[in-house]
Amino acid sequence: xxxxxxxxxxxxxxxxxxxxxxxxxxxxxxxxxxxxxxxxxxxxxxxxxxxxxxxxxxxxxxxxxxxxxxxxxxxxxxxxxxxxxxxxxxxxxxxxxxxxxxxxxxxxxxxxxxxxxxxxxxxxxxxxxxxxxxxxxxxxxxxxxxxxxxxxxxxxxxxxxxxxxxxxxxxxxxxxxxxxxxxxxxxxxxxxxxxxxxxxxxxxxxxxxxxxxxxxxxxxxxxxxxxxxxxxxxxxxxxxxxxxxxxxxxxxxxxxxxxxxxxxxxxxxxxxxxxxxxxxxxxxxxxxxxxxxxxxxxxxxxxxxxxxxxxxxxxxxxxxxxxxxxxxxxxxxxxxxxxxxxxxxxxxxxxxxxxxxxxxxxxxxxxxxxxxxxxxxxxxxxxxxxxxxxxxxxxxxxxxxxxxxxxxxxxxxxxxxxxxxxxxxxxxxxxxxxxxxxxxxxxxxxxxxxxxxxxxxxxxxxxxxxxxxxxxxxxxxxxxxxxxxxxxxxxxxxxxxxx
Length: 499
Ligand SMILES: Nc1ncnc2c1ncn2[C@@H]1O[C@H](COP(=O)(O)OP(=O)(O)O)[C@@H](O)[C@H]1O
Ligand SMILES: O=C(CO)[C@@H](O)[C@H](O)COP(=O)(O)O
Description:
Layout: E1 2-7, E2 11-18, E3 23-31, E4 35-36, E5 42-44, H1 46-64, E6 73-78, E7 84-86, E8 96-97, H2 105-115, H3 123-127, H4 136-146, H5 148-153, E9 156-158, H6 160-169, E10 173-175, H7 176-179, E11 185-186, E12 191-192, H8 194-200, E13 210-212, E14 217-220, H9 223-229, E15 236-238, E16 241-242, H10 243-250, E17 260-263, E18 267-270, E19 286-289, E20 295-301, H11 305-314, H12 319-328, E21 337-339, E22 356-358, H13 367-390, E23 398-402, H14 409-419, E24 422-426, H15 431-448, H16 454-459, E25 464-470, H17 474-498
Parallel strand pairs: 1-6, 6-15, 6-16, 10-13, 17-23, 23-24
Antiparallel strand pairs: 1-2, 2-3, 4-5, 5-8, 7-9, 11-12, 14-15, 17-18, 18-20, 19-20, 21-22, 24-25
């Protein structure tokens, strides 16, 4: 049995994966607070992630009702890009700035303008990936500029999943797929970019973690962490990875031609490629490394279930009532259109964007239409990614959906009707946690059998819930094409206001 852990933006999910029966034997969840302000701040305390991981692990083990000694390994998936800073005594210096923190947008733009002007190549050419404000580099620039005292104290610098691995093992290491979302990692050569780091600060006070490949272990579970988690010390902790990379493993998206869409706090859409695509003409693609030695071109939106949940809670509706609202309303939400940019936009990259509702009349204003409008808005936004990936000659016929929002059948049907693709739910909604468990299995096997194959582990794991398949309905698809084009026209009309 293996433990898969996913540290998401709203909470940490843990599952006990029974590799023989290929099923989840137990699951646990613990949420945490997101500290925000009106200037784009989005922060969390890394100590809250540790508490949540311990709490959710204990729940999962209790539900599985197994002896902890049956757990052979752990794999950790984590929200990408967050910046965790440790001082010389390995104490956390300040709360982690998260992927969704848009505060450093201007600083990042200024850094690119001033440090990468000709004859220098642009930043994206140097590291092979465009850098939006979500990336760690932006958070580092912010701490350096606004909190110089804290900056001087930094000795170690980590991403969320690396910090959890550091807690579990005591080892300061980083794995390439998550590192590819920092903005100071060369995604072609899979190494830290000294060139970029030197332009941030040639005299930086911290060292970078040792890079490992995804198949390599991060380390062994140390006794103190084992006691807290209720596990045996010494079991293997796999390399882990960014949540999208681990979800790729959890949905079997490890060979070309497959497409996964995550409806979590963020919306993401990604596919595996054997060669890195040239995204110079497609700046909205984040050309990440994958956790199986290839690449994972991905598009991401800033607003997904944060927006649907904000509207749902404002209207005082339960998840069941949200579902009823989707079936009671029609495509186009009676004429109401929602640009859902509560937290700025990442697709297109406009951190200063704000949300809006248009087309409201005395006849169409009701809760069902408002809920449908926000679901359509976030779906139109993310489905744009399919067009963008297609411009790189990537083609798909079906889509696997994951994340909290994928539990909604009405929402899955809207995605199918907008995209024109068959939509199926992942066997385990939290595919990041499943990916962590499958990676731990792979890593554990690698220690005993040479050449253990991740593909075999994934294909044996029945990664989809066949009963959940929804097909696009032709009449709705043509109606949604019109609505989709109108939505993106509306975004284009607003663009100059947010640039
Ligand atoms: N049936 C559902 N319909 C719509 N939204 C849902 C449903 N179930 C869960 N969610 C939403 O999913 C979100 C959590 O998704 P999750 O993928 O766990 O997020 P994260 O990984 O970012 O923490 C919550 O906002 C929750 O309200
Ligand atoms: O920034 C990205 C991807 O580049 C986000 O996908 C984060 O990785 C957060 O994930 P969720 O908490 O929404 O799952």
